[in-house]
């Protein structure tokens, strides 16, 4: 069942009922000011950091699920309704929500009044604009009362949720005309405040939540709206809100437009000014002046739309497959940009106060957006590398505002270092900018320890070389990509002591997955060494990679598939010898995509085992059989009920690894079949089962052992976005950036047909036509560049070219 449809021309998903199975959200903002907004106008805003600079308040895990947002109430006689349906939930005559790229539109119609809300964050500004147009479609005059409503968050969202003994006494506001200022804590830190304003005179306001709602009401029945009259309350402590009242008279057919601006203003805290607690209103007036008229709003909106058009033009495909085109050209790239902005901090499943930027997460995200915003990708790489430790290990997460490693979580996830090589290599392959390798980058944010980025990569590489276990496989540490596979837990086998490795290494749990990563990214590291003219280091790296390759074949192969790991007792994990959890997806996907076992014929076998043991109609499960009991020696993985999350859920993130692995083996049918199973556009029809947004990927879909098989959870902020985009754009459609130029090597399903691709790469626009006269799945028989035949399938890079036409014939 569907709850809406795609509008590809408008680049929107159109939701036609407010009663979606879960809130279906969108993200506004590209730089510093961000908002989450659901299809019923729920959500919240923050500047730069969802934890430390939260502007409006949200209530997690609430009843109803999606509660608190930026609402407009319309009182028309005795009928009170919201254009986005919530919170009054008054039945609407018409409802539509259009989530677009960086904006959302809502249309609500009730009793002949049509309200259209457009909401977006303009480029280069720290504010959100909500323009509401109200139209009278009846033949009688309408006397309406329009109320706005936001609830302020007292900045630090973590504290806001917990520290009531303080919070209930700190709230401060100031009202000047139509502008409601939120200045809580300003008297102390004097560096930021917020404002909510409307571009017309108001007929009243409220800033105290109690006065607006009434002491016993929720936001579905505010007293003020019921009465039709604001109380002009000025909050002092408790919970400040911002409510404007506009009395709107509409003649038959008449429409009126109002522009509301929610702004965040930062000023220099060292400024000396007249008196404490006098906010720098001038800065606010300047901002509000930029969005006073419809024309200004239209213009700012056009700038935003152009920004996206330009961004998405960098990779654009026209194939015979609408769903592929829609995902590649719009939604998958859009989600990649959202993961760039948010990492794993703020979604409807990430509270914004728990996790900031993940080291591994943000490095992987780079794979999906380096082509879109290379400059910002560059800065991101430096930020991430600056949190690395001297021995090559890394803080697992850092806070976006401070960019400092998060000491509470610490380090010890032994896959982290290699992801830095993955992200940096992707950036250089995309941009050709190897100067980044010479950038001086600190360790642990300590400038006195700055060293060229290339050294960071070496530390990453050597960290693995220096941390191997008894099978010469990488030590797993606290966990690898699979956060929940915590193999260095003890006391699981009474009477048997865990194995140690060297005096300081602790237990010996090893990861075959990290070994696969090392083979893949070790070679990419060697290529970067070659690029820098360091043949000796390249040779050393390749020798280490070969050793690892051999170690995987020797002790990482189980007969039909790759073993997952060795636990702290040196027992196999993910082996046919295990009672449960006999096969895991990660080493199958990653070892094969790294090329391990291809020439030995093992890779093919591993892929067959995946198909036979892990595949389902909704995607490939992470492991099988699911753990039915808790295994102390495995850690969190077995704490989940069977079928959920890391215990046999379908982790969408590593499905593309298997799909890519299939392209390495040349099986376009299977690669595409895997791609389709988790692809939002392909599963839109089962939205009632899948439940999460049909335009973006979710981290996890419940596996076959789960009660709700096929149900998605944790949408938006997942490495799935970057990896599926890598899969479809670089391996299936096959435009892969090498250090020397674009390589064209598609691997497509039977009958996929010809396709055209526009790809902007290092400032050159490539127009690539791929034809497939013999309907093969893989292989390029000839290629011409601007009419001239070239050897091989890499387009020689010529920086003086502007537009280049490439004809590729598969065969
Ligand atoms: C969750 C994992 C998640 C990890 C990240 C765990 O508690 O179960 O799914 O990846 O935390 O911090
Ligand atoms: O790899 C992790 C990721 O960093 C966070 N989400 C879950 C994944 C698997 O555990």
What would you say about this model in short?
This protein is of the alpha+beta class. The chain has 21 helices and 41 strands.
Ligands (ions, cofactors included) = beta-D-glucopyranose, 5-hydroxymethyl-3,4-dihydroxypiperidine
The CATH topology assignment of the largest domain is Beta-galactosidase, Chain A, domain 5
Under CATH at level 1, the class of the largest domain stands as Mainly Beta
Name of the CATH superfamily of the largest domain: Glycoside hydrolase, family 65, N-terminal domain
Estimated radius of gyration: 28 Å
Helical percent range? 25-40%
Spatial separation of the terminal alpha carbons: 40 Å
State the secondary-structure class.
alpha+beta
Strand numbers in spatial order across the main sheet: 1-2-9-10-11-12-19-16-15-14
Q: Write down how many β-strands occur, each being a DSSP E stretch of 2 or more residues.
A: 41
- Average pLDDT reading: 96
Describe this structure in words.
With 811 residues, the chain is of the alpha+beta class. It folds into four domains: 4-309, Glycoside hydrolase, family 65, N-terminal domain (Beta-galactosidase, Chain A, domain 5); 343-466, no CATH class; 506-610, no CATH class; 735-810, Maltose phosphorylase, domain 3 (Sandwich). The chain contains 21 helices and 41 strands. The strands form eleven sheets. The chain has a ten-stranded antiparallel β-sheet, covered by helices on one side. Helix 12 packs antiparallel against helix 13 (512-531), helix 13 (512-531) packs antiparallel against helix 14 (535-555) and helix 17 (655-665) packs parallel to helix 21. The longest helix is centred in the middle third of the chain and has 21 residues, at 322-342. The radius of gyration is 28 Å and the shape is globular. The two termini are 40 Å apart. 56% of the residues are buried. The mean pLDDT is 96. It binds beta-D-glucopyranose (BGC) and 5-hydroxymethyl-3,4-dihydroxypiperidine. Residues 358, 360-361, 481-484, 646 line the site of 5-hydroxymethyl-3,4-dihydroxypiperidine (IFM).
